[in-house]
Amino acid sequence: MIIQNFIGLLVSLSILIWSCDYAIKNSITISKTLKIREIFVGIFIISIGTSLPEYAATFQALKLNSEGIVAGNLVGSNIANILLVGGIMLFPITQLTIDNKDSSTFYFFLLFSILFFILIIIDVNFDYRLGILFFILLVLFFYFEVNKESSLQEVTNKENQTSYILILKIVAAFVALFFSSRYFIESAKNITEIFGVAETTVGITVVAFGTSLPEVTATIISILKKQNSLAIGNILGSNIANIFGITLISIFINGDINYHDLLSNIDKWLFLITSIIFFVIIRLRLAGKLISLGLILSYLAYFAYLYL
Fold it and tell me: What is the count of structural domains for the chain?
């Protein structure tokens, strides 16, 4: 039984990563075809693609009445995105290259992170009222970003036709991702029952790490192509997408969710601290192996702490 669940976990995770990676590659091609600026692509195209495992995992976890996995997945994925994915991003480079006009995007990220932290620390129940507020904030953020200089350019009919084909490929990848996530969550849930591990702990570690692997892949590809802004946009966008997307999905399906009861104080505070650390890193354009190893070792220490 244990071996079957572990095999199911690995197989479904492999399909999940492949399908998400396939969607990301086609999204990058679309961005080049439509001539969209780099950080915009990272935030609204790549990050959505890499956040799909979190969304699919949330949907399946809610169907299985596993709200602990939902909460752990949101917070754990954001922590993993900054400490693990951010650490990998900073390792091969000595200094971040960031366009000054993108500074406001970083403040949006920090604002959303602080707002979410305040709501979960004071024990606020996330219901339809907060869902409407979150949706409005997300629309305003998108509107502000899309109206920045060098957003979308006019494209030819031929380019539009190419984009339609790429979109179909992405949709096909999303279908594979959705079903693979279902078996991934079911296997993870079974393992928690066998070993007696709390659902939230599994959500923060196993599920969050697994669904963050597409972010790792996208970041490595971006760094190899020397597209720092794309990698940064992916991390920022993925974290924002997790906060809004997972919460809105939970409200839509369950009617409400209370993260305060599902998360420990350490999880809540680490969520805020890592967000602030990443904001400082990108604002001061810090990079290098020392910072990279510090972030990665911090993540491994947190991972170990949860199971010891």
Answer: 1
Give the domain range for residue 267: 2-307
Q: CA of 65: how far to CAs of 7, 60, 70, 185, in Å?
A: 23, 9, 10, 12
Give the CATH number for residue 125. Answer: 1.20.1420.30
**Nearest 5°: phi and psi at 257?**
-155, 145
DSSP secondary structure string, 33-102? HHT--HHHHIIIIIHHHHHHHHHHHHHHHHHTT-HHHHHHHHHHHHHHIIIIIHHHHHTT-SS----GGG
Nearby residues of 68 by Cβ (< 8 Å), 6 or more positions away? 198, 199, 200, 202, 203, 262
Closest by CA position to 80, among listed 210, 201, 182: 210
DSSP assigned state of 127: -
**pLDDT single digits (tens) 181-209:** 777 777 777 777 777 767 677 666 667 76
Residue 230 pLDDT exceeds 60: yes
User: SS in 3 state form for 247-292?
Assistant: HHHHHHHHCCECHHHHCCHHHHHHHHHHHHHHHHHHHCCCCCHHHH
Task: Read off the pTM.
Answer: 0.80
Nearest alpha carbon to residue 153 among 234, 266, 6, 34? 34
